[in-house]
């Protein structure tokens, strides 16, 4: 953390009220913005599904969709039409109201969070000076967390209302997963709030005019990347669906448009968390460093929307990259990563950020700030080394236990409680009447009728 990046003047800039430009737009401008967000998200879902399949196809040295439309660009649209035309079945015995409402509960909150995402500065739209953002709130960043938390209710209720063990287990997994990863995600936001001095998304973007928080708060940014993948139930964290062991998880009993709604909710959530990462860590709509030196007007007019879109596409690509590169992890590994790794790292990191930020705002000397940073770094490295030794010791003990169990199992076949019959017991078929072969003589059949038993030969 450089003294320039922690200058109190930057905090003053970020803490200035950026809410004055909101609330005065005509109703038709608000309507245009709302419709624009809806259309943008729907197009993003269609393009992301297509990109998901095309990019992973190239990563696996095969062609993706290439039949419907030019270069397969209409494949997602035709898939949506196909799903909408399928017969809509409702299983017998389900809670009908909750079963139908669950997909809508999962998909609708994802659209709300995008209302507070700033895409650009104030622009002239049909003769009206308005910001490229639907609205902003004093607690806009908390609204994002709230809407993300509401989405899991649809998954849980869908799994419970389906009256299926697979769907119920998928819903329970999703609830536990979202709770653990939302805690880590919220903690990654805390460091941003400390540095920006505001909870408004427009103010957070303004605080990154000189330096992006992805550089200044790198650990929080890396943790957020992990948590946003876990929050959206994407590989390698798609344990809520778990096709290998839960058939389809919470979506097992759903089809037609209700299945499409769950699918839509997943991809809209991906769009939302990617937009939040651009807003909180990648400078929002500000041009990348160095662009303003070549193009002085890069942060004026409609150009910032282009920089925002490029950053947004890069974050969306991370979802595809992770899905095509990483295998699905076990559920115990998923929970251990959330509770035992990500959350402790965030707590320690937030403590360090808060201390350094307080010293800077109090006007402490650079030497004292540097000493605190060095001491904090050394303490963190020592703790990390101690954790690595603990993990290695646990692995060595586990390997020793497995070797000992293998040795005992080799010496004693009944070790471990397996139902291995002793060698002195009667043969399995000794109490089963023998079945005469089809070519057996009548005498053999008659002897069998007398109740002779199988000898095992």
How many separate structural domains? 2
Question: Main sheet?
Answer: 2 strands, antiparallel
Give the tally of β-strands: 2
Q: How many H/I helical runs?
A: 16
Query: Which structural class do you get from the secondary structure elements?
Result: mainly alpha
Describe this structure in words.
- With 457 residues, this protein is an all-alpha fold.
- It folds into 2 domains: 8-363, no CATH class; 365-398.
- It contains 16 helices and 2 strands.
- The chain has a two-stranded antiparallel sheet.
- Helix 6 runs parallel beside helix 14 (331-361).
Which characteristics define this entry?
457 residues; mainly alpha; 2 domains; two-stranded antiparallel ribbon; 16 helices; 2 strands; 63% helix; disordered N terminus; disordered C terminus
Topology diagram in text:
Blueprint: H1 8-15, H2 27-59, H3 75-85, H4 96-113, E1 120-125, E2 128-132, H5 140-161, H6 165-196, H7 201-206, H8 213-216, H9 218-231, H10 243-246, H11 256-281, H12 291-294, H13 303-325, H14 331-361, H15 366-411, H16 442-449
Helix pairs in contact: 2-11, 2-13, 3-11, 4-5, 4-11, 5-6, 5-11, 6-9, 6-14, 9-11, 9-14, 11-13, 14-15
């Amino acid at each position: 953390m450089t003294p320039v990046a922690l200058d109190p003047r930057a905090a003053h800039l970020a803490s200035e009220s950026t809410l004055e430009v909101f609330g005065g737009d005509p109703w038709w401008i608000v309507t245009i913005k709302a419709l624009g967000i809806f259309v943008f998200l729907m197009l993003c879902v269609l393009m992301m599904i297509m990109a998901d399949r095309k990019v992973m196809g190239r990563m696996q040295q095969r062609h993706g969709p290439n039949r419907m439309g030019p270069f397969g660009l209409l494949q997602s649209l035709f898939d949506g039409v196909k799903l909408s035309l399928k017969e809509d079945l409702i299983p017998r015995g389900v809670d009908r109201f909750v079963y139908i409402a669950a997909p809508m509960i999962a998909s609708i909150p994802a659209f709300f969070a995008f209302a507070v995402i700033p895409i650009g500065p104030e622009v002239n739209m049909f003769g009206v000076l308005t910001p490229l953002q639907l609205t902003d709130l004093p607690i806009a960043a908390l609204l994002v967390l709230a809407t993300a938390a509401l989405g899991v209710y649809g998954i849980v209720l869908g799994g419970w209302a389906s009256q299926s063990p697979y769907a119920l287990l998928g819903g329970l997994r999703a609830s536990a997963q979202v709770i653990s990863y939302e805690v880590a995600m919220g903690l990654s936001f805390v460091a941003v709030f400390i540095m920006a001095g505001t909870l408004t998304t427009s103010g957070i973007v303004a605080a990154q005019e000189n330096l992006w928080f992805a550089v200044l708060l790198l650990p929080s940014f890396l943790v957020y990347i992990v948590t946003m993948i876990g929050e959206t139930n994407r590989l390698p964290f798609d344990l809520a669906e778990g096709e290998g062991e839960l058939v389809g998880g919470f979506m097992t009993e759903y089809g037609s448009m209700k299945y499409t709604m769950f699918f839509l909710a997943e991809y809209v959530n991906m769009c939302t968390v990617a937009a939040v990462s651009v807003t909180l860590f990648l400078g929002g709509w500000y041009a990348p460093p160095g662009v303003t030196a070549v193009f002085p007007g890069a942060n004026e007019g409609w150009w910032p929307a282009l920089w925002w879109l490029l950053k947004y596409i890069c974050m969306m690509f991370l979802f595809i990259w992770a899905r095509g590169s990483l295998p699905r992890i076990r559920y115990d590994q998923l929970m251990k990563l959330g509770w035992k790794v990500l959350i402790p790292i965030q707590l320690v990191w937030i403590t360090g950020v808060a201390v350094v930020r307080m010293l800077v705002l109090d006007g402490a000397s650079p030497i004292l700030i540097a000493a605190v940073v060095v001491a904090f770094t050394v303490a963190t490295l020592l703790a990390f080394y101690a954790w690595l030794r603990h993990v290695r010791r646990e692995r060595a003990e586990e390997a020793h236990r497995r070797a000992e169990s293998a040795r005992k199992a080799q010496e004693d076949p009944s070790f471990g409680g397996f139902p291995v019959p002793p060698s002195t017991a009667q043969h399995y078929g000794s109490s089963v009447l023998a079945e005469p072969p089809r070519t057996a003589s009548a005498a053999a059949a008659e002897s069998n009728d007398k109740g002779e038993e199988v000898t095992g030969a």
